[in-house]
Amino acid sequence: MAIDPEKLLTTVATDLATLRARVQVLEEQDLGAAVKGIKTALADIREAVERMQGQDLPASSGPGTAPDWTTVDREEARELWDWLLKWCGKVLHPTYALNVWRPCWYRHQRLRVELTWLCAYWHWAYQPTAPPTRAAEWHQRWWPHVEQVMRRELARCGHASDIIEPKHTVPADQDQNDFEDGELMELVEQDIARRPAPEEK
What we know:
Elements (H helix, E strand, L loop, with lengths): L4 H24 L2 H23 L20 H24 L11 H17 L6 H22 L3 E3 L8 E3 L13 H10 L8
Parallel strand pairs: 1-2
């Protein structure tokens, strides 16, 4: 195939013109300033990360983990009861569990244990630094599980007229979804008193 010198020269000239234009664009750009700006931004990011790493995460109110009811002493039990009752009374009962709640809930040991770790998980999920996936998992996974446990545990508790062989009855003139039956704090004090003193552990 014969080469057309005139066509070849035209092609080379066009390529050279394109290359010259690109070189001129690069020469006109202040690449040094751009690189300096990137380095400054990276330094700022690195400093921000180091500051975050040096900070302690905000502590949740209460124990923060799932405490073991079988090992706590009197002081720990009082703190644990206070922590659990406040959360159940202000968050769980009115917001999520009102329709399945019974005033005798605290008499059910299995349920109390389940509510304890559920409470700990809720505090962890709602820490200021927590990603939204924690709260999503609490609502989609952990609360539905405990709700089913609550339904089973309290199935024989409520108004006597509505239950065959009731376990814990609720007076007919009392709302069977009330938070407690008036004897909660007495049981709490009894539970605390039976535990070892801190120095005995």
